[in-house]
Amino acid sequence: MSLVNPDLQGLDLSDYAVPGRGKGLLEVFRWRYLLRLLVRKETATRYRNSALGWLWSYVRPAAQFAIFYVVLGMFLQMNKGIDNFALYLFSGIIVVNFFSEGFANGTRTLVDNAHLVRKIFLPRELFPVAAVIVSFVHFLPQMGVLLVVCAFFGWVPSVMSLLAILLGLLTLLVFTLGLGMLFGSVNVPFRDAQNFVELILLFATWASPVLYSWKMVARVAPEWLLNIYMVNPLTSVVQLFHYGFWAPVTDGAFESEFPAGLWSYAGIALLISVVVLVVGQSVFRALEPKFAQAL
């Protein structure tokens, strides 16, 4: 016996989408208005009923910087081994802060918006994309502070310095979004994912040359491990930010403080980030039909 409604036989249904499934990230562009609403909601509610409001975007990185600078820079004398250590440190901290916030929020976003996922159909990719955009909005004030400090030190960027910054931002956005979609989709049926992400973020600051120089790793790590370390997207982004912001105000940094294959490592890191995004989107779409049921 046929399960198809006789009234529907012979109709062209090619223009109709399968319920619960969208067209992936590409469909986000068609829902730009809703994306803006989600971003506006998240940015408006984050500091609601807060006395300091948006100042918290400065307080956290300032506190991190102060702690790391005092402990590592003054107590462990890292400021003597790395010129302009304060600028070196802060240009790496803002990268890790963006990654940590975007990755963590992207992982929780579907669960946090379960009431929307259950009740209406919309491209579910909107939620991790909005989470990363909100993190980028919070990243901008920190970037502004970095630019002011760089200008104070006499920062005059070259074309290559600007290219390094843009490449670093692109890699950071793609990598963060890919991981957010991957772990965000897995977090719906398995809430252990967000706990696993917290463990990853514990190592994020130390797994890239934010608080130390990559040369310290090169002195003790075998070549194969050093290569893995250098193509880590987070390591690459931190290095590119150092190249763009710190090196122009530090004498001799371009010649001595970066690996010979910096741009090759950066290209591989971007490729890895794209692969992570593709895998994240694939897993997201595979689990998407069961999101409403699981939530």
TrEMBL record:
The keyword Metal-binding does not apply. Keywords: Cell inner membrane, Cell membrane, Membrane, Transmembrane, Transmembrane helix, Transport. InterPro entries: ABC2_TM, ABC2_TM_bact-type. It comes from the Bacteria. One of its GO terms (biological process) is lipopolysaccharide transport. GO terms for molecular function: ABC-type transporter activity. This is Transport permease protein. It comes from Leucobacter komagatae.
